[in-house]
Write a structure and sequence with these properties.
- The protein contains 5 helices and 2 strands, in the order E-H-E-H-H-H-H.
- The chain is mainly α.
- It has 2 domains: 56 residues, no CATH class; 42 residues, no CATH class.
- The protein has a two-stranded parallel ribbon with strand order 1-2.
- The protein is elongated.
- The two termini are 20 Å apart.
């Protein structure tokens, strides 16, 4: 998704957490090769859908799964903060408290 490619994935592990909203429609039940083949066919044949899903996936990665988000999450963990509060699952960015501004150096943004 970070490379702008439309995902087609199965509903296993943490995949549904990443592919929610419009992207959830691309999730295939585990152990269903016919559904997988059908979705792959659909994605191959519908360029507009493929481009829209690819753009949506890339945007999700940029909003929620960058190095900065990961580093802020680890910093919050080490500070003992509630990780749900700093989670980006709802699309919110993680604000850096004033007392921790030194953690928002360019390498963390």
């Amino acid at each position: 998704m970070a490379c702008g490619v439309a995902p087609v994935a199965t509903e296993v592990g943490g995949v549904p957490e990443i592919l929610d909203g419009e992207l959830a429609a691309q999730l295939i039940p585990a152990n269903d090769p016919a559904a997988l083949a059908g979705m792959l066919r659909r994605m191959m044949n519908d360029g507009g859908l493929r481009r829209r899903i690819a753009a949506s996936g890339r945007q999700r990665i940029l909003e929620r799964h960058t190095l900065g988000h990961t580093l802020r999450g680890y910093a919050a963990l080490y500070r003992g903060e509630d990780l749900v509060a700093v989670s980006s699952r709802r699309g919110a960015t993680t604000p850096v408290p004033q007392r921790h501004q030194r953690l928002s150096e360019p390498w963390i943004s």
